[in-house]
Write a structure and sequence with these properties.
alpha+beta, three-stranded antiparallel sheet, elongated
Length: 166
């Protein structure tokens, strides 16, 4: 399983399966390619971030970061990008307990939808300023939120729990 860091290129996802070698930055960071670029002169792949860093450090004479050929060209490799986007990854909240596995293209939906990842941090919808895991929100709203609506057992007035108990 590859775990990558974006500071020097590469991906930040935890992959569920072994990543094919062709999807690894073979020139610089040696992590899963992020925005794959194909070095036309030698056929190797490099992350866009790694390539940009290389180009910034080369001054006027810009040589290929792999084969050192002068006047090299590079292009987007949409085929590799598509392959990488279809690799299976683990949820970014896996360390908190989420067991979801899916493709990168489905991660955003998993994290954003109401029935998605229960381990993502959310704010109370009653605006009590409490931050909690999505899976705990229903219980918080029903039992613990000071701004939940309730009825006073003595006078029958409806207001927030906080107001009634003051």
């Amino acid at each position: 399983m590859a775990v990558a860091n974006v500071t020097d290129g590469g991906c930040t996802f935890r992959f569920a399966d072994r990543v094919p070698e062709r999807c690894i930055c073979s020139v610089a960071c040696h992590k899963v390619l992020r925005n794959a670029r194909l070095l036309v002169c030698c056929g190797n792949h490099i992350c866009e971030t790694c390539l940009n860093h290389w180009l910034r450090t080369q001054g006027k004479l810009k040589k290929c970061p792999n084969c050192r050929r002068e006047k090299f060209t590079h292009v987007e490799d949409l085929s590799i990008r598509r392959e990488i986007s279809n690799l299976k990854i683990r949820c970014t909240n896996g360390e908190e307990g989420c067991t979801w596995v899916g493709t990168m293209s489905k991660l955003k939906t998993h994290l954003a939808t109401e029935n998605g990842c229960g381990f993502i941090e959310v704010h109370c919808t009653n605006k009590c300023k409490k931050q909690l895991k999505r899976q705990d929100l229903t219980d918080h709203l029903a039992q613990h939120c000071p701004l939940r609506q309730c009825k006073c057992q003595h006078c029958g007035k409806e207001d927030t729990y906080q107001t009634i108990t003051e």
